[in-house]
Amino acid sequence: MSMMTGKEYVESLRALNPKVYFLGQKINSIVDEPMFQPHIHAAAMTYELAHDPEHEEIMTATSNLTGDKINRFTHIHHSIDDLVKKMRAMRLMGQKTATCFQRCVGLDALCAVYVTTYDIDQKYGTKYHERFKNYLAEVQKYDWMPAGAMTDSRGDRGLRPSKQAHPDVYLHIKERLDDGIIVRGAKTHITGAINSHEIITMPTRTMTEEDKDYALSFAVPIETKGITFVFSRQTNDTRRLDGTIDAGNPKYGIVGGEALIIFNDVFVPWERVFMAGEYDFSTELVEVFAGYHRSNYGGCKVGLADVVIGGSAWVAENHGIGRASHIVDKITEMIAMAETCWSCSLACSYEGYKTPSGAYHINHLLANVVKLNITRMVYEWMRIAQDIAGGKIITLPSEQDLAINKVGKMIEECFYGKEGVPPMDIIKMLRLVENMSVGAGLPEAMHGAGSPAAQKIMISRRGDLERKIEIAKRIAGLKKDPHFEKIVGKDENEHWKEVRTKTKEKSVQIF
Ligand code: SF4
């Protein structure tokens, strides 16, 4: 099977029958449910753009397993160029959808499991990597979208998984059988879960020997018996049922459609198990996945910034203040912040490295800096967007009122801007700015791929403070600098002694 188009992806979901609940109801057809359609369209764009010759170079890749042309969202990075192209694909996708397009979580899970299974096999002589490559070949062949499922519900955060009062707050192995394992527990706020073909699970934290049964990674189809999805409630979500304007981005939505996944005694055959008790590799899997995923944010969120900057500039222009110096200053500020985040993402890709598995990984320190910047700067550029858009973004009448005969026309007249610009266009753009800057996209930028505290832990671990102290000591003269000694042609102590004598002579001459 070749790469799917966007439409074929949507139809491929129709063939699946996962157990999904939302707003108190069981949903029978994911694809036909209006609440789910926007974020399904966003994911579909990852398929569609792979067929556009203009974007082919960044949206497709060559499989390291088969040599076939595949969608980049199923490709394991095998060069710096791959890492950079992924980042360019992320920004492009953000620009095309103005929302979370979800498929990168599964891609990052594929890459992280690829890297870690290789390392586990080197230590324990297991066969996880071969098993995983067989699975990956299927993902590429059928162009599947797997959901990457990492975060457990975690119960009492101060206790290890094996010490929790309720054993199911972390996903774990309940039973080991000859042909597979039985698993139980849950994964929370999993992006794109209900419209993926598969789920790939990973541990959510470092595990110890006592937590062996929680050091777990596997893949299952979303319609596997025992799996239940509960789709998340989000700010303004029912606006999707109000028509085609008030939702702001009716084509693609505002966030990626998150869900709680409950595993109730689910059977997983051994050929789909990629970690089962190797607790000493749980940290590696978590960190490799988090590194890939955090680096993304300077791509996807900057694509969104491009949209909201464009929207803000358009609103200002059509309100007749596009050239006002304070507007130019604000738009420039937004651009500078967005490009700062973009620079970080490019840097952590260019500073990537080859892992023993052959796959390339990003620079961990810089990836965490990317994400930490995003937790602040998205709020800041959205704050400026609201500032530019003005109070209308919180007081606009609903589209139902606009649809009333005569009253609708009267309302429209209240929203005239520059001569010749249809007021309805102004209303639509204000709704876009409103929904992008007020809705669930903000906390998503804060907590997606881990909260700021998680990034700070990694930055502090990898910031190499010892070296910074060492270099400061040399500059302050607490330690000798051999390069400086070469420049002055003598021992530092001798040099400073001479300098002191000379400066003394000089001051005697002056005074
Ligand atoms: Fe991908 Fe996360 Fe960005 Fe969504 S928010 S597009 S899942 S990196």
Number of strands: 14
Number of helices: 17
Ends apart, CA distance between termini:
90 Å
Mean pLDDT: 96
Specify the helix fraction band: 40-55%
Bound compounds, please?
Answer: iron/sulfur cluster
Category from helices, strands and their pairing: alpha+beta
Poorly predicted ranges (pLDDT <50, ≥5 residues)? none
Q: List the strand order in the largest sheet.
A: 2-1-10-11-7-6
Q: Which percent range describes the beta-strand content? A: 5-15%
Radius of gyration: 27 Å
Largest sheet: 6 strands, mixed
Give the overall shape, derived from the CA principal axes.
globular
Describe the structure.
The protein is of the alpha+beta class and 511 residues long. The chain contains 17 helices and 14 strands. It has helices spanning 6-14, 37-48, 56-59, 80-97, 103-124, 128-142, 282-318, 325-350, 364-389, 399-402, 407-414, 423-438, 441-447, 452-462, 465-476, 482-488, 492-510, and strands at 19-22, 25-27, 60-62, 69-71, 146-149, 172-176, 180-191, 198-201, 216-221, 227-231, 258-269, 273-276, 353-354, 360-361. The protein has a six-stranded mixed β-sheet, with no helix packed on it. A four-stranded mixed β-sheet has the order 5-8-9-12. It has a two-stranded antiparallel ribbon with strand order 3-4. The longest helix is centred in the middle third of the chain and has 37 residues, at 282-318. It starts with 5 loop residues before the first helix and ends with a helix. The relative contact order is 0.11. Bound molecules: iron/sulfur cluster.
